[in-house]
Design brief:
By secondary structure, this protein is an alpha+beta fold. It contains 24 helices and ten strands.
């Protein structure tokens, strides 16, 4: 408890030192009596702007706060641009752990197996970070000789430090939201919760190893990509051993040119690999900065660092495609709906205002094909509109947006004329065509049929309950609020199911048109589709018959 209180005291001192003392009272930390603590400074030392003071504060508070700032800097749907730009400058400058401590961790964690790594372990680390550091070594190869490896070792004591700081950060976020409606509008507690999940996942090197193997499986047989092999016999939650990747850093344009590599072609290849992760695999590298990509001597793209990954559902991918198509088609109404759904919300607080803002946005890209719409300005402006209307992207979607922006930036470093949307167009086209495949339509027809069937069985009971409520004396006397909410919810779903039944019937008529386009692919499917569709229509007809009889009995 004393250590926790000391940490709070350190936070108070750091806030005050950087001119953020006015926040101490709002956070309820003024009860910590600190003799000699300087008075709160609203203007900040030497007139330093507020975003810069926040960055300096996070740097002084240490690794967990630095990482939080780095991740939040990508959330332009939550953070104003001037704050995001300042926090993006945060650097993780953790001092290296002495080699003796690293060797002790390996010996303690791996036991006799550590000897395989310790013999050739290089004392000078290849990289250091707040969570762990990386050393070079070798392991004996099965067929003789040795394999070059990198060994990632978690820093001693980091788990306890991270957990304590995350608990304190969650408490501070909660206090800040209670003290300020403006802060509450930025969803700070939710951001801290998302960050906590991300950082705790990075603490577990077994998860990173599984991520690497998933990428290796997704790119099996792809000659463009090299995912390093995991050495499982010397990998645990504290130690990760991977095949060493060597090559030219992808943004070293001079070295690429000297090696005879076409930077423009490399930009296209690299970004197509990243887009495949998103739009085909649904599992993507969420931190594609240049330090994680190397061009190997054989021309393959070596990818490293699998601690931060994202997974995207088919629904989220489809909603993202709908956003891009609505921009191209200048359909502000559809864009509004797609944006709200992308955020996982049911509606915007000011839907008409949001639609008007989106209408102005799409007007600027009138008459352009998708390949000519600049994705970064569009995503940046959309993020700003979400922020203005208090909408917030789910974590995975925010990671995806961040990845697309970083991918576009990587492409432009290699070729200033590069535009990610030119590479994005074929993927969106495949998603659209895939939505009309026999498998996709059969799945949708089956779902619609079941919804219609469910509606047919629930509707008579719903109608009976509604009539009983009405007969008890009227809405103004006996209709309880909770009962009204349930009935309205049922009514909304009922309307959806009626529409579902009608769509089912319409889709059956459309199948014939689709079959004529790709007859070889549809061979054997029409019968199943018609059966599924007729099931939905039959259920709808059954409902109509039941409700008709019910009305006659009344």
């Amino acid at each position: 408890m004393s250590a926790r209180r000391d940490r709070f005291r350190h936070i108070v001192e750091t806030l005050s030192r950087h001119g953020l003392g006015f926040a101490v009272g709002h956070l309820g930390l003024d009860r910590l009596h600190l003799p000699g603590r300087p008075a709160p400074l609203r203007a900040g030392p030497s007139g330093v702007p507020l975003p810069a003071r926040i960055r300096l504060t996070l740097e002084d508070l240490g690794a967990v706060y630095i990482k939080f700032g780095q991740i939040v800097s990508t959330r332009t749907d939550v953070l104003p641009p001037e704050y995001a730009a300042e926090l993006a400058k945060l650097q993780d400058a953790s001092p290296p752990v002495p080699a003796g401590q690293i060797r002790a961790v390996l010996a303690d964690e791996l036991g006799p197996r550590a000897d395989r790594l310790l013999a050739d372990l290089q004392d000078v680390p290849l990289a250091t970070g707040s969570i762990g550091q990386v050393h070079e070594s070798t392991v004996e190869a099965p067929g003789g000789g040795s394999d070059d490896v990198v060994v990632k070792v978690r820093r001693p004591g980091v788990v306890a430090q991270v957990n304590e700081d995350l608990e304190i950060m969650a408490e501070l976020a909660k206090r800040a939201e209670q003290a300020s409606g403006t802060i509450a509008g930025y969803h700070v507690s939710a951001l801290v919760d998302e960050f906590s999940q991300t950082l705790r996942a990075e603490l577990d090197y077994l998860q990173e190893a599984r991520n690497a193997e998933q990428f290796a499986e997704n790119f099996a047989g792809d000659s463009r990509v090299h995912i390093p092999r995991v050495f499982w016999d010397t990998t645990t939650s504290r130690v990760l051993t991977l095949e060493r990747v060597r090559g030219i850093k992808i943004n070293d344009v001079e070295a690429l040119r000297a090696a005879g590599i076409d930077a423009g072609g490399l930009a296209v290849t690299a970004c197509n690999i990243l887009l495949k992760m998103v739009f085909e695999d649904g599992f993507f590298h969420a931190d594609p900065h240049p330090g994680n990509f190397f061009v190997e001597p054989d021309g393959r793209l070596g990818i490293i660092d699998f601690g931060m990954v994202g997974q995207i559902s088919d629904t989220a991918r489809w909603n993202l495609v709908r956003v891009l198509l609505a921009v191209v088609e200048q359909d502000a109404g559809r864009l509004t709906t797609a944006m709200v759904q992308l955020c996982g919300a049911t509606e915007a607080a000011d839907a008409s205002g949001l639609q008007a803002s989106l209408g102005r946005l799409v007007g600027r890209y009138a008459f352009r094909p998708l390949a000519q719409v600049p994705i970064v300005p569009v995503l940046t402006e959309l993020a700003g509109l979400l922020r203005d209307h208090r909408l917030r992207l789910p974590r995975e979607t925010a990671l995806l947006v961040k990845m697309l922006i970083m991918a576009d930036g990587l492409g432009k470093q290699l070729n200033p004329e590069f535009e990610l949307t030119a590479q994005l167009a074929p993927f969106t086209r495949r998603i659209l065509l895939g939505s009309l495949s026999p498998e996709a339509l059969a799945s949708r027809l089956k779902k619609l049929g079941w919804e219609a069937l469910q509606f047919g069985t629930e509707a008579p009971e719903m109608a009976r309950r509604l009539l009983e409520v009405l007969e008890r004396g009227g809405l103004d006397v006996h209709f309880r609020a909770d009962e009204l909410d349930r009935l309205l919810d049922k009514a909304e779903r009922t309307g959806n199911r009626i529409v579902a039944g009608l769509i089912t019937a319409a889709l059956i008529g459309a199948v014939g048109e689709l079959v004529s386009v790709q007859p070889e692919r549809w061979r054997g499917w029409p019968k199943a589709l018609v059966t599924a569709g007729l099931g939905g229509v039959g259920a709808l007809g059954g409902y109509l018959a039941v409700t008709s009889r019910h009305r006659r009995r009344r």
